[in-house]
Task: structure prediction
Amino acid sequence: MMTEHPEQPEQQVDVAEEEVQQLSPEDQLRLELHEANEAKLRALADFKNYQRRSIENEARAVESGMVRVVRSILPSVEQMNLAIAHGGDEAVIQGFQMALAELMKGLAECGVSTITPEKGDEFDPQMHEAMMRQEVEGIETDHIVSLMQTGFCLGDIVLQPAKVSVGG
Result:
């Protein structure tokens, strides 16, 4: 038994061309104008999407580059903090403090901020890294007991979580 097949795409195109040829010349021009306007609008929309994606990609690339550079600098910041904390000669300590202050100022101008939780703040695993648990009177479970190392973030990206001890 033979079933009816829907028209093939080639047949549909032929039918559409026949219908267009039956239109008056003015109507054919109107149809062509309408199709050209639709094509123009599609091209403009595609171009706007391309521009938006390009801007987003550029912003991501810049942010990714900044993250890599800042992450490479952070160990130096920690070394300076350790030198200041354990240094002996006052002139050397002062020099490290000045250098660290300028470095931190430059990082802040690039959008880097510090993560410095206070004693008693609630532990946030997105921003803090628990190094140890301590039983301390007056500090609730899962609240900060002490800050061991400052953390850093660039916008909403945590570059290095703050290292803390947590009440347990």
